[in-house]
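S.,

Sequence below, as promised.
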Amino acid sequence: MVIQFEDFITGCKLIGAGCATIGVIGAGVGIGQIFAGFIIAYARNPQLAGAFFGYVLLGFALCEAIALFALMMGFLILFN
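The prediction came back faster than expected:
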């Protein structure tokens, strides 16, 4: 059985795209940590919930941006 060069390139693209999307796992963990910290802070001091929530949204947006960058890199590797 002889492996064709095109099959090898296709396999490498699939492996590379899968490895590039591993960053989504880290973003999911980061988002969970952000909201867990918010719940703990809200439980300790409910009067400052409004101030905490602004920081939560900022942290969520930054983590989600990293996840979208990782997903975009996976798609670029896969479809290029």
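The chain has one domain: 20-79.

Coffee later?
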